[in-house]
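Please fill in the sequence for the structure shown.

STRUCTURE ENCODING:
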């Protein structure tokens, strides 16, 4: 036996197919008639347009972030046995 929810969804989809398409105005022109946008590296998103992207600095900041996340994971994986260990964990995480 089929569930009633499945039948409701099936009937709703069948009725949705019976509707008319909305009358949308043609924007005119070709969608690809303009120039493609210039792609920029993600490192430039916060800086002024046209600024150079320092790949070594971005890689170092990525390594630093990864090291911080590994340290946080190691801290969070320690077992909590009492209130003192919980307080130590909270102190370590707030640094």
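FILLED IN BY: designer on duty
SEQUENCE:
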């Amino acid at each position: 036996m089929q569930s009633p929810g499945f039948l409701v969804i099936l009937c709703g989809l069948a009725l949705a197919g019976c509707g008319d398409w909305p009358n949308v105005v043609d924007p005119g022109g070709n969608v690809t008639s303009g120039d493609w946008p210039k792609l920029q590296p993600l490192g430039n998103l916060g800086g002024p347009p046209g600024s150079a992207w320092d790949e070594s600095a971005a890689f170092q900041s990525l390594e630093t972030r990864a090291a911080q996340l590994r340290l946080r994971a190691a801290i969070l994986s320690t077992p909590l046995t009492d209130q003192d260990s919980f307080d130590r964990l909270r102190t370590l995480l707030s640094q």
